[in-house]
Amino acid sequence: MKKYFQASFIYSGLIGGAITVDENGLTFHTNKLTVESWIRKLRMNDEDIDSVSETRFLLFPEMQFHMKNKEVRRFIIFSPSKMKEVLKEKNIAII
Question: Sign (positive/negative) of CA torsion 41, 15, 55, 86?
């Protein structure tokens, strides 16, 4: 059930990449060598995600992943309606 979404991670600017959704969680991938190594393959397991909220970053749709450890990870996702469907299938709360 892998699904792929073009996305940008908002962290000290925009970091372009993609999100892969599998049965256990989401992984953000980027090939940029100038970013920290933990960002290049950023994993978010389903059980670590508390909720997801929607907002806008400039003109783009932004999704904020609120983690159970109180960290917020912000992404611009270029097909937010499809991502919402996938998150609902995974029983992740969208607020």
Answer: negative
| CB 75, CB 7: distance < 8 Å | yes
* Residue (of 29, 38, 34) closest to 8 by Cα position: 29
> Which residues have C-beta within 8 Å of that of residue 29, sequence separation ≥ 6?
17, 18, 19, 20, 40, 41
Mean pLDDT by 10 residues, the chain (95 residues): 94 96 96 94 97 94 97 96 96 94
With a threshold of 0.70, does the pTM exceed it? yes
Containing 46, the helix (H) or strand (E) segment is none
Q: Rounded to whole angstroms, how far apart are CA atoms 6 and 55?
A: 17
H/E element, 58: none
How many Å apart are CA 26 and CA 13, to the nearest integer?
21
Among 75, 86, 62, 70, residue whose Cα is nearest residue 1: 86
